[in-house]
Structures are given as structure tokens and as C-alpha cells.
Amino acid sequence: MDALPSDSWLSRIRIVLVGTSHPGNIGGVARAMKNMGLFDLALVSPRCAPNERDAIARASGADDVLANLTTHHTLAEALTGCTWVVGCSARSRTLPWPMVTPREFAARLPGELTAGGEDARVAIVFGREDTGLTNDELQHCQTHVHILTNPQFSSLNLGAAVQVMAYEAHQCWRDHQDIRDEHSDTPFGIEWDHPLATQDELEQLFVHMERSLIALGFHDPENPRQLMPRLRRLYARARPDRMEVNILRGIASAIEKAKR
Amino acid sequence: MDALPSDSWLSRIRIVLVGTSHPGNIGGVARAMKNMGLFDLALVSPRCAPNERDAIARASGADDVLANLTTHHTLAEALTGCTWVVGCSARSRTLPWPMVTPREFAARLPGELTAGGEDARVAIVFGREDTGLTNDELQHCQTHVHILTNPQFSSLNLGAAVQVMAYEAHQCWRDHQDIRDEHSDTPFGIEWDHPLATQDELEQLFVHMERSLIALGFHDPENPRQLMPRLRRLYARARPDRMEVNILRGIASAIEKAKR
């Protein structure tokens, strides 16, 4: 498992929470952030203390994020040094504003951070548990982001909303890494334990399989129906490795032996 | 804001939680599900009660998901009727298994649900807060999904993990609203001739297969090595349809008859 480099651009994403009420939510946010390689947390006029028991319990080891958070009286202060500010908004507003999905947000991140220079930060601003962000606060944001949800039950938990945004940022960062695990390039998505069988090994398997099924009395070559094509299709989809071919041939041999 | 149609295929996704300890997590999962239009929650041997105060508080209005959840003694029972079972796995295992990202999982959903027929369910299985899923439980899954995280702090909260998977499913559902091709969209890229086998049909197949291989003298349960896990993995990749399961069970019956 690779390490997250300390100079990852993920560390330049600031999560800003406005007027949070529940310490447990601050802890949940800290955990979601650290899980996805984000560390910069800013609180604006919190309505609870971020070092309460519930915050530490829900942070579940992301104590460093809690210890290093900053607290601000105004949103403007919390956004110092940020070149792109994105406000999380559940509702449509009277005044339309540029809007992205979380995925579009993530896709724009590398360019925004490059454009902003080495010290630039991108902020994602989240509102109060009950009333969200005010219109004035949303107008501090260049862009709004809306997480599509079930319209009949649309209000995400604060930690869940941060989780979605941080997840999208993290996946984008992964996609931009040029260092690719050289082994994961199998049809199965991960390094495999045995090499795939070759086409000729598979042909030998099918010959052996058919012979054993005839010996077993299960397959009648005079009335083959679609048995062998169906078995071929089944194993073709599975892409057997060499060990699996050996197992299937072992079974075929045992059948032949039993019938001898 | 549009409504979520009650026949959305999102309602055919089952979230399965194995051995959950904290009622608050069950509540958080219920909320994350309902936010994303998922309603089918199954618990396997929970180590807490899903109607405790913390569960209801964290569900925050997703009471209907809690009220309708089902509880099971075994994972196999919770997977009845499911045609695609995906296990959430943080660790790499000794026996490699087909692996997808959450986004790849979502991309495959419409096809999997089409292939399984109208009653088919897709299950996503999540393990215990402390120890995840056992190897045996992971081997009940056709596919594993791994959420990429900060390698130095990789353990997601249970609700957060469900949130990520449900979010990906929901976004995919949204993306597919306008473009519907009901037939070419199976796991195999074309319309299929038989419905996919359900998880319980596959379990019965494995029981029958094992019994016949013991009768054949090929498999020694006292010295099983990795035979059954390897066969499970092979057929998990192939995603057998119902006709193929019938063929394989026919072979197993013929073997038993030959040895009688």
C-alpha cells in the first residue's frame, strides 16, 4: 500500500464548517477528512466545542485534525488564502449561481490549484445542521456544489456531505497519480496469484472435460444439444488461471478413473 | 426538484451489515441509504439492537428504513434472491478476488439488475466495525469493492462507507435517467438468454458440488487446501446463469450416481 505524500495537493483543500451545533459532527468530519487525506479544518462561529467527548469519539483517531483546526469569527476570515471557494447548497436559491456536481468539482480541482499557485487553497464551505448556509454566506462562494439526493429525504448528515466531497477529491487525486500499480492490470482489477491459462491449455481442458462427461454418461455426442458450447461460454467468462485449469482437469481425471 | 420514482432500481440494492456493534452506526447507515434512495437494509447477527436510542437519533428521520430492516442468522440467508453480491474489503487477501472501485461498481449496476430479472437484488456487504468481513464471508461475494483512502488512516466509519457506495449508485442512477437501453446493458454487454442464478441457487450448487467431489474421492474435507474457495472464485467470476447452474448440478448428480 502506497503512502500519501505529504505534499499531496489534497492537503491544500480546506473544509470550512459554519455554525456547527453538534460536536459529534465535527468529529465525524475530521475522520472523513483524514480518511481521504484532507487535514485543513476551519470552524466559523461554532455553536459547540470541538474538543467535547463526542467529537473525539467520532473522530476515532483523527485527533490531529481536531488539534490543528482553526476557529474564526467570520466566514471571510476562514477563507483567507483560498483561491476557489465552493459552497455546499441543498436548496436552489432565488439568484442562480454557478453550480457543479461533486464530480465536476473534483475534476476542476487540479487546475484550480495549479492556477492558484503553490500556496493557494481551495475551500469547501458547509452550513449549519438545521438551516444550511445563508444567502449571504453562499454569495461568498464562487461556485455552489449540490449533492444529488433523494428529493423526499435530501438533508445529508454533515459528516456524510464532507465524506462525499472528500471522497471525490481523493479519487480525482488518485486518477492523476502517474504512479500506477504495475500489477493491478489484470482482468480482475488486482494482482492475481496464478497466470491466466493460455488458449491452448483451455482447448485441452475442453477436450478432457468432454471425454470425462461422455464417460460419466452425462454427455451424449450423438445428441449433444448445446452442452459443450454452454460450458465453453461459462469458462470463457471466468478467464480461468492455470491452477483452476489444473483443478478442473483433476476432476475430469477422477471421473474417468471412477468409471474405468 | 423531481421525485424519486418508487420503481427506481435503487430500491433493488440491499445493504447488508454483518456483526455491527454500534446502534449509532446502524442509524447512520439508514440515513445515508434513504438520502440516496436505498431502502433495503439487512442485518446479519448484529451485536446491538437497531431500535436503540442512538440508532434512531442518527437515522434522523430514516425511521422507515429501520422499521423495515430484516435480521438474519447467516450471511447466506441475508443474500437470498441476490444475483450480484459485492463485499466491501479494506485489506488484500491471501486469495485474490475480482475487485472493483465504487465507481466501477456503480457503472455495472444497471446491467447487473437487468440481467438478474425484475426481482433480482444486488447486495453490498459491509463487515464489523473492528475486524471487517472474514475470509469466509468475503468468499460468499462474487466481487470485492475497495474504497481508496489515505493509507495511513484507512478505516472508514461504517455509515461513511455506505454513504460512498450509495452515493455512487445514486449518481449512476441519475446519469441513466435519460439514456435507457434495457437490453444491451447486461454484465455481458448483450441481452442474455437466461436469467442470472441467485445467490442461494449458487450456494446450493456449491453444497452439491462439494458433496459430489467428496464422493468422487477428489476432495478431502479433512485436508481441504483451497479447493472450494478456488471453485467459488472461479464461478463467481463467470456469474453463472440458471441454465448453467442446472448443467453443473446435473454433472454433480451424475458423479454421485456413478459412485453409488
Automatic annotation (TrEMBL), chains A, B:
This is tRNA (cytidine/uridine-2'-O-)-methyltransferase TrmJ. It is an enzyme of class 2 (transferase). CDD domains: SpoU-like_TrmJ. The lineage of its organism: Bacteria, Pseudomonadati, Pseudomonadota, Gammaproteobacteria, Oceanospirillales. It is found in: Cytoplasm. It comes from Zymobacter palmae. GO terms for biological process: tRNA nucleoside ribose methylation. Its main location: cytoplasm. One of its GO terms (cellular component) is cytosol. The gene is trmJ. InterPro entries: Alpha/beta_knot_MTases, RNA_MeTrfase_TrmJ/LasT, SpoU_MeTrfase, tRNA_m1G_MTases_N. Belongs to the class IV-like SAM-binding methyltransferase superfamily. RNA methyltransferase TrmH family. One of its GO terms (molecular function) is tRNA (cytidine(32)-2'-O)-methyltransferase activity.
